[in-house]
Amino acid sequence: MMTRACEGKSWTFCEIRPDAIIGFVPQNNAMNMAQGLGLFLSLWKEVEKQGDEVRTVPFPGSREAFEALHTDTSQDILARFHIFAAGHRDLVSHRAFNVADGAAVTWKQVWPEVCAWFGLKGGEPEQRSFNAQEWMESHQSQWADWVRRNGLKEGALEGTSWDFMQAVASLPFRRDYDLSAIREIGFTEERQHSLGYIRTFEEMRRAKIIP
């Protein structure tokens, strides 16, 4: 349909396909995996702290999900490929491109690095899968006081889709993208997958969404 629509016109198109987008928005976005994780891990750190010790955070999913390959797409890489595509019309016209941060990874690799930013230890899946959505909802009575005591922006917890966060972490199958098409046309930028989360958490802290 797009090919027919641009016949004889001055414009053309390409399709850009990210995996789960990891990034920051100043207002709430229900389908924001990083926002959900940032709020969950921040609250976990406070609620589950025992003296000077912080309990290990179990991975919120099954062993299959923990070890399944995937390719997250940070907002910076996605935006930079949009710019690249806009400047290379002859290379991208009438084509589709997968975009991700780099080679496939697993939560087994990323989870410890994400948790470490909060000063936590990222644990492996429990025999009975831990559910972060259920944990957040069971502590809903503590949200308002936590926000108040830390001087945080109101509404972020209420505006976060905990089922989306839990669903993405629980996917038990590989969904890694083939990035050969963007590499073939000269887009070689990549970044460590956990860095997309960490940059998002830094923005969330600056915006007073997490302490």
Structure description:
- The chain contains eleven helices and six strands.
- Strand 3 and strand 4 (53-54) form a beta hairpin.
- By secondary structure, it is mainly alpha-helical.
- The radius of gyration is 19 Å and the shape is elongated.
- The protein has one domain (15-206): NAD(P)-binding Rossmann-like Domain (Rossmann fold).
- The strands form three sheets. A two-stranded parallel sheet has the order 1-6. Strands 2-5 form a two-stranded parallel sheet. A two-stranded antiparallel sheet has the order 3-4.
- Helix 6 (107-116) packs parallel to helix 11 (193-206) and helix 7 runs antiparallel to helix 9 (162-169).
**Apparent shape:** elongated
Low-pLDDT ranges: none
Structural class: mainly alpha
| CATH class placement | Alpha Beta
Order of helices and strands: HEEHEEHEHHEHHHHHH
Residues in helices, as a percent range = 40-55%
Q: How many domains in all?
A: 1
Strand percent estimate? 5-15%
